[in-house]
Design goal:
Blueprint: E1 2-5, E2 13-14, H1 30-43, E3 47-52, H2 83-94, H3 98-105, H4 118-131, H5 135-156, H6 166-176, E4 185-189, H7 195-203, E5 206-208, E6 229-231, E7 238-240, E8 244-249, E9 252-258, E10 265-267, E11 274-276, H8 283-286, H9 292-303, E12 308-313, H10 320-332, E13 336-342, H11 355-358, H12 360-370, E14 376-380, H13 383-386, H14 398-410
Parallel strand pairs: 3-4, 3-12, 4-8, 5-8, 12-13, 13-14
Antiparallel strand pairs: 1-2, 1-14, 6-7, 9-10, 9-11
Helix pairs in contact: 2-5, 3-4, 4-5, 6-7
């Protein structure tokens, strides 16, 4: 793990390696201390906002004992697909016709930055289908797009109820148990999968996700304004329950489907036509249509609130419609703290500069950090490494702890 902040003197600080016995020497670990500090500052804020991307799903169902392959799945399990995986699936599905797709769409296959980039290919296909003069070529490319979208739907539906999503559960445990006097934690995710929903089910957390408590469940932004309280026998008193968080799926979900008769969005298991923003350059425009508009509005509004912390995990800043609001909020909200966590931020010993120097949005944030902006920090780490470092806040509220102390005081020994 490495950290880059205003306290790291303009350099990436690396945590000390663990010994074979699983412990470190007695010397202080400056990098670990700094990581603990920035994460603790984040959790103390009144508003905690979490933005997650593909990096939070890639570890699920990986066989950690398989030393031959980097991403070998457990027996009988599926993995969350990467962009490269989707490219390969689409290429294999097309077979010999794949080169024709590249030709008609005028995809620059020799461009290194676009290598195996399925999002770029679908974007070129969209443009190519609109400008080709031959109806045959247009239909051919559009059929390829439809086939690829079906591949995406099939591949992202990788979870089973018995899959190990303990890292997601632990994240929820640490953020949802913040005192109920603070504003409910908001998790925004670009992922289509159901990792957070399954983790909430296993940990018995309550998810407020814009869907009704009716059958079938229907989408209505009004539900984001609701909360859940526990009422005692006295109808005039109530307590906000713990273990509640808000979940916003910015690009849709594999279990959302539009009811053509009622025109409502319903939650449907194994939806045939799930509501998704597929990877292509039109994501910016689609993000401002319903139901995504509600999610985007909530995201932008959350970043403008005072005493807000934004924890970004596994998001590569490649989606401009999300990166730009973050940069804008950093410029205008002086009370916004931002911690960016990703395993590809820092330079590597092999000579890779890292995304903090290559991505245009991350370069701006890194520059502000180098100039002493104490609100911003970067942590080079995976989702699995990060979660154990998050503050483990006690489940009891301040009032509950106070009552326990008073109770102990009453039986305190006289000596």
């Amino acid at each position: 793990m490495k950290v880059f902040s205003s306290h790291s003197n303009g350099a990436w600080l690396k945590t000390k390696a663990m010994s074979a016995a699983g412990n470190q020497d007695n010397q202080r670990d400056a990098a670990k201390d700094e990581i603990k500090r920035v994460l603790s500052d984040t959790f103390r804020c009144k508003n905690l906002v979490v933005l997650t991307g593909l990096g939070t799903s890639l570890h699920v169902n990986i066989d950690k004992d398989d030393l031959i392959s980097d991403r070998a799945p457990l027996s009988g399990k599926k993995l969350a697909p990467t962009m490269g995986d989707l490219w390969k699936k689409a290429k294999d599905k097309s077979g010999l016709n794949f080169e024709r797709v590249l030709s008609i769409s005028k995809f620059p296959k020799d461009e290194p930055k676009l290598k195996n980039n399925i999002e770029a290919l679908l974007s070129y296909c969209k443009v190519g289908s609109e400008f080709t003069d031959k109806q045959e070529d247009k239909d051919f490319v559009l059929n390829f797009v439809l086939d690829t979208e079906k591949i995406i739907r099939d591949e992202i539906n990788f979870l089973s109820l018995d899959d190990d999503i303990s890292i997601h559960s632990e994240l929820l445990r640490r953020i949802a148990r913040r005192t109920s006097r603070k504003i409910r934690t908001k998790i925004f995710t670009t992922n289509y999968d159901l990792c957070f929903e399954y983790a909430a089910r296993q940990g018995r957390y309550v998810v407020i996700d814009c869907f009704s408590h009716t059958s079938p469940q229907v989408f209505d932004s009004l539900y984001f304004t609701y909360d859940i309280v526990k009422r005692a026998s006295n109808p005039d008193s109530h307590d906000y329950i713990s273990n509640v968080f808000h979940l916003y799926k910015l690009h849709g979900s594999i279990d959302w489907q539009k009811n053509e008769k009622t025109n409502e969005i319903e939650r449907v298991k194994d939806a045939e036509k799930p509501i998704l923003i597929y990877p292509r350059n039109t994501k910016y425009e689609l993000a401002f249509e319903q139901p995504y508009l509600e999610m985007m509005s909530a995201f932008q509004s959350a970043l403008r609130q005072p005493e807000t912390a934004l924890l970004i995990v596994g998001f590569g800043f490649n989606d401009n419609h999300l990166a730009e609001p973050i940069i804008s909020a950093i410029h205008s909200n002086l009370n916004l703290k931002v911690v960016i966590c990703d395993p590809f931020l820092a330079p590597t010993e092999a000579g890779n500069d890292g995304n903090a120097k290559k991505n245009e949005h991350l370069k701006k944030i890194a520059y502000l950090i180098s100039k002493g902006d104490a609100r911003l920090s970067m942590v080079n780490t995976t989702f699995e490494e990060l979660v154990p470092e998050l503050p483990d806040i006690a489940a009891d509220t301040d009032l509950e702890q106070h009552l326990d102390r008073i109770k102990a005081l009453r039986v305190m020994p006289n000596d």
